[in-house]
Write a structure and sequence with these properties.
This protein is of the alpha+beta class. The chain contains 19 helices and 68 strands. The strands form 17 sheets. The protein has a nine-stranded mixed sheet with strand order 52-57-54-55-64-62-61-63-59.
């Protein structure tokens, strides 16, 4: 019954409060001393809060002060003039305003009523007038963003009828305590008064949230000016717990306002970015909400230290509630949430001492239904980190103003002008009440944007860098185990450390410390290898003077890599205790320079001044640290960023800084600051000395271009330096790189190379104090595998990489692969691979398939590709004597023999036996002419160039001849054999070998450019050729007892394929004649000019192939010792 009764009262309240509280006076006209072209003064008296007057903008300048003047329909008493700011945003919200009036008595003279400061707060404000007026003028001296706007100007007087109705029943000014004689609402005519009396008599929790005391906060602009932050802090302090719908009306009884502006704001980020604001005065205030949302008390003043708290009573207003860590418990939270629907997408406010979040009910119920206290402790910890870096406590600049994090329906995470926001769909990571799951980095990163010191610590190129100092400080202090730091533990990197844990920070060690690249131009995982854009921009000299338009190049660089030197300085100074609060000291140095922007008017000057302040703050010469980091180097580059611009530092600027530091007599630092990170700072803090094993190599294990160094053996090393045999530094490895546990080891970069300058020879462990000791030695210079043929045999499985014995090519060119592995065979071209090298990487070419070995990073995906799609492998020798190699794809994946026949890609490097391959150079290929045949011919086509020996020749079929032979008039068809030129058979040229009946070992020739001999009627294939028509191929060899030759070729009437590495003749090329007789060009010439001999006694004869004839046969042609061709009869 009680719920039904209260519902009835709420309905009654909504009906009873339709009347307006302000008795308006009609306004005739409005004028302004300056207007925009489309938003004139009349739009501020049209009765529509969605339209507004706007001073000049969009390329035009607003000149202050600017006057806004209204003319009343009739001269009369005006008690109040109400300013309603634009409702879509705060641009043009009034700051300092002087109010003047004019009437018949004053004539043309305007009389001032005083000056009011609205603090550009965007709050509806009632100016007290109390004069007879015909004209009112508002002289506006400043406005938010450099403009002035107004949604509406209204004038009139208050209606006190409602106030008197309440006063009859209550004994206090806020109407929270009934007079003793009021025990029932019976007989009360005013519906609002009646509802309030009933609520106080029946609802013991009525006053919760509806009655409250609200404190003053410092104005956002003043706070921003002091802290030098990029953005303002939370504009929605003092949540009330009241939640209203658009169109709802309610009364607010107020007491305690003195000389400050106090108002209300209504905001609900989840529903809309548009909010609304209303002015308040002491006494009864009538509010009609123009937007839906939570209600806040706007009480911002620069007199916040002395201004009194203000008390308010939101009479009969609907309560949503809010949660405050200082005064509430988890039980209060659970009770509050229980009253709200799990599908409610509207906002509920939660706050800690310095943090305020505005997330929807549905998200609270899903992600944090019970332990809100733990969650807000995490937010407060981020705030501690942010404010600690800024030095607010240290320098007495702490503020009770909070930072805001709110939910949106767009974007992901970002920083807004008044706080930071996150898309509703991604809130889980920042609403987890558990330090191991809470996204410290995300929250710290976006709030860090708001807190970036600008100018001074936010020059071009720092947009996504210096904000991360805050994020990293929060992360290292409060993540549960410190095992997942963004820089030190992200699986990232480039080059040989791509995909390794800590790879992003490792990039700085290589790019800055070893290669010496300027700080703003160091490569990194983000934007790696990006091609610079050519752009035309305004040029500037080193003093910031424009030099006209110039064409230059520009690109983005990794923002996290640029963070490292600031992070290292903070670790060394504060966590290691070498110079506590060094970053806050630099920031304070920037804050206390009132002319900072004009003095340091270029990005380069700000960067140099930052280093100067660091040295002055630490009283240490830190310039060598900055030099190694790449910050103290000449640079002239246009840097991409949210605010792109030139970074220009010349040698003169550097020399002046060095002179300044030298003049101070600061001592030089003696520690390896550039090697510190979030996992080894304790070595610096505790001054732990480097300790290495007595036995060189103890605690070190080599594995595919890296050496695993155990921290329990090599103790207190802060980094590792790799040198070549000439003592030149070729790699610097960060402490903990590549570890997969709690940093018990480091994977030290130890490259192999065929170049002595790039081949690792030994490792020096580095102590925090600069001590260096050798811990490992092995010359990683390897012989080049380039431009040679190999078999590639799995060390684990014992068989070879092969293009597949059943791979084939069809007549239409379609290739069918069967990439697998095969048994080792000296005669098989399938398993022969050629190593091509480019830029230190190896391409594995299979001549048989004329394709390259490659694959993607998962099992069973290795394939044969064209070169444009092939994988470039990093071939690393792990055992030079045994020719053992691993082939990595640069992302931590290696060619792996994961089954008896299949090949894929897996991790593990040389630690997995199936990743290891034995390379054996192939110098010869077997070409067999069968000893059982009656001829000495072999149809062949090999995919690599071969060098002939003295015992074998190679021929092409250059033509067809039809000639008679013997004393018969029989005409024979001859395939004319022409010997190739020279002794090299070019790759993929079909030939007929003629030689001794044996297996010939022919040498493989790399990179041969011998042209194919033409014409050539032979057709050939390396892969098996399929889809041929039966009876089209001639390659069946047999002895030739007739026609004067030793071999004849017959048509193959059944074959539809041609075997791999074979050649053939086409039946159609010989007019479909079979057999065809193989004859050399010399033989053909001999038939055309042959002598007949019947008397052959005592003469020596030779076969046409050069062999001595032991028995003559009638009808055959022989050669005599004097080179005559004789037909024997």
């Amino acid at each position: 019954m009680k719920k039904i009764f209260l519902t009835f009262l709420c309905l009654l309240l909504a009906v009873a409060m339709d009347a307006q509280e302000l008795k308006k006076v009609a306004i005739k006209t409005a004028t302004a001393s300056s207007n925009s072209t489309s938003e004139g003064a009349k739009m501020a008296i049209d009765g529509d809060y969605s339209t507004f007057w706007h001073s000049p903008w969009n390329g035009q300048t607003t000149s202050f002060p600017t006057n806004f003047t209204i003319t009343l329909e009739e001269e009369g008493l005006v008690e109040i003039a109400r300013y309603v700011p634009r409702q879509d945003n705060q641009n043009g919200s009034w700051g300092k305003v002087e109010v003047l009036y004019r009437n018949t008595e004053s004539g043309t003279k305007y009389i001032s009523l005083g000056t009011f400061n609205l603090n550009q707060s965007g709050t509806t404000y009632d100016f007290p007038i109390g004069e007879v007026c015909k004209y009112l003028r508002f002289r506006i001296y400043d406005g938010k963003g450099g403009w002035a706007t107004a949604a509406e100007i209204e004038v009139g007087s208050y209606d006190n009828t409602k106030l008197e109705a309440f006063q009859s029943y209550f004994q206090d000014n806020l109407f929270t305590t009934l007079k003793p004689e009021v025990t029932s609402s019976e007989g009360i005519e005013d519906a609002d008064v009646k509802a309030l009396v009933d609520n106080l008599l029946t609802d013991q929790e009525y006053k919760n949230f509806r009655v409250g005391e609200y404190e003053p906060y410092r104005t956002l602009a003043s706070l921003q000016q002091e802290l030098k932050t990029k953005s303002t802090y939370n504009p929605w302090e003092n949540p009330t717990g009241i939640y209203v719908k658009s169109g709802n009306s309610f009364y607010v009884m107020v007491e305690g306002i003195e000389n400050e502006t106090v108002g209300l704001s209504i905001k609900n980020w989840g529903l809309s970015e548009v909010g609304s604001s209303y002015s308040l005065r002491n006494g009864l205030n009538y509010i009609t909400a123009t937007t839906e949302g939570n209600v806040f008390v706007d009480y911002f003043t620069d007199n916040y230290k002395t201004a009194p708290n203000v008390r308010m009573h939101f009479i009969n207003a609907p309560v949503r509630g809010y949660w405050d860590q200082e005064t509430m418990t988890n039980a209060d939270w659970v009770k509050m949430l229980s009253k709200l629907s799990a599908k409610d997408s509207s906002i509920i406010i939660v706050r800690s001492e310095h943090a305020q979040v505005a997330f929807p009910v549905v998200a609270w119920k899903q992600h944090c239904p019970t332990n809100v206290d733990s969650l807000m402790t995490l937010y407060q910890q981020v705030e501690w980190a942010e404010r600690d870096i800024m030095g607010l406590e240290k320098y007495g600049r702490q503020t009770k103003n909070r930072q805001l994090y709110y939910a949106t329906t767009y974007g992901f995470m970002a920083a807004g002008g008044n706080g930071a926001y996150c898309n509703i769909s991604s809130l889980g990571a920042i609403m987890a009440p558990d330090s191991k799951r809470f996204d410290f980095w995300g929250v710290g990163h976006e709030w860090g944007h708001n807190n970036q010191i600008s100018p001074g610590f936010h020059w071009s190129g720092c947009g996504e860098t210096t904000n991360n100092i805050y994020a990293s400080w929060a992360q290292i202090h409060f993540t549960g185990t410190r095992s997942n730091l963004r820089l030190e533990d992200e699986w990232s990197g480039i080059d040989e450390y791509s995909g390794m844990r800590g790879g992003r920070m490792q990039t700085y060690f290589e790019e800055a410390l070893r290669k010496g690249v300027q700080w703003q131009l160091q490569d990194g995982p983000d934007y790696h290898g990006t091609t610079p854009n050519t752009i035309t921009v305004m040029g500037y000299d080193y003093n910031g003077n424009s030099t006209g338009m110039v064409t230059t190049t520009s690109r983005n660089y990794d923002h996290f890599v640029k963070l490292v030197p600031f992070w290292q300085l903070n670790l060394w100074g504060t966590l290691a205790g070498k110079c506590p609060d060094i970053i806050p000291m630099v920031i304070e140095g920037i804050r206390t320079n009132n002319n900072y922007g004009s003095t340091y008017n270029t990005n380069g000057k700000q960067q140099v001044n930052w280093m100067k302040l660091a040295c002055d703050s630490a009283k240490i010469d830190l310039l060598p640290f900055f030099e190694k980091a790449g910050m103290l180097k000449p640079i002239n580059a246009y840097i991409e960023d949210y605010g792109a611009g030139w970074n220009k530092i010349n040698q003169s600027m550097i020399d002046n800084l060095k002179k300044h530091v030298a003049s101070k007599g600061y001592p030089a630092f003696t520690e390896e600051i550039n090697y510190i990170n979030g996992h080894n700072y304790h070595i610096y803090r505790d001054n732990l000395k480097l300790s290495v094993p007595a036995t060189l190599g103890s605690g070190c294990t080599y594995n595919a271009g890296k050496v695993k160094v155990s921290h329990s053996s090599v103790k207190n090393a802060v980094a590792f330096e790799t040198y070549n045999a000439n003592g030149e530094l070729i790699r610097i490895t960060m402490y903990g790189l590549g570890s997969d546990d709690a940093h018990s080891f480091t994977m030290v970069l130890y490259p192999t190379s065929t170049d002595e300058a790039e081949a690792a020879a030994y490792i020096m462990a580095v102590g925090y104090d600069g001590t260096r000791k050798k811990i490992y030695e092995k010359n990683n210079l390897i012989k080049s595998i380039a431009n040679k043929f190999y078999t590639i045999t799995s060390s684990g499985k014992g068989n070879c990489l092969s293009c597949g014995s059943s791979s084939s090519i069809a007549q239409n060119g379609t290739i069918t692969w069967s990439l697998a592995r095969a048994s080792k065979s000296a005669t098989s071209a399938d398993i022969v691979w050629f190593a091509e090298e480019k830029d230190g990487l190896t391409y594995l070419y299979n001549p048989q398939s004329q394709s390259y070995f490659g694959g993607s990073s998962s099992a069973k995906t290795t394939k044969l590709y064209t070169k444009t799609s092939a994988t470039a492998w990093k071939a690393e020798c792990i055992d030079d004597a045994a020719n053992k190699y691993v082939f990595g794809d640069g992302s931590g994946q290696y060619i792996n023999a994961y089954s008896a026949t299949e090949t894929g890609l897996y991790g593990g490097g040389a630690g997995d036996a199936n990743n290891i391959w034995i390379l054996e150079e192939v110098k010869t290929i077997n070409v067999s002419i069968s000893s059982t045949s009656t001829h000495c011919h072999l149809f062949a086509c090999y995919p690599f160039a071969l060098e002939l020996t003295d015992e074998i020749d190679a021929y092409v079929v250059s033509g067809v001849e039809k000639l008679p032979y013997g004393d018969e008039n029989t005409v024979y068809t001859y395939a004319v054999l022409d010997r190739i030129d020279g002794n090299i058979v070019p790759a993929n040229m079909p030939v007929i070998f003629i030689g001794s009946k044996k297996t010939h070992k022919l040498k493989l020739v790399a990179n041969d450019n011998t042209p194919h001999k033409t014409p050539n009627l032979l057709k050939g294939t390396a892969l098996k050729l399929t889809g041929m028509t039966k009876g089209s191929v001639m390659n069946t060899l047999s002895a030739s007892p007739e026609a004067g030759t030793t071999a004849q070729v017959k048509v193959n009437t059944t074959a539809t394929t041609l075997a791999k590495n074979k050649s053939c003749l086409l039946y159609s090329d010989f007019s479909n004649v079979s057999p065809v007789f193989l004859a050399t060009r010399d033989f053909i010439t001999g038939i055309e000019d042959v002598e007949v001999s019947q008397d052959n006694e005592g003469k020596v004869f030779y076969e046409l192939n050069g062999a001595r004839a032991t028995k003559l046969q009638s009808g055959r042609v022989y050669v005599t010792s004097d080179a005559k061709r004789i037909l024997v009869k």
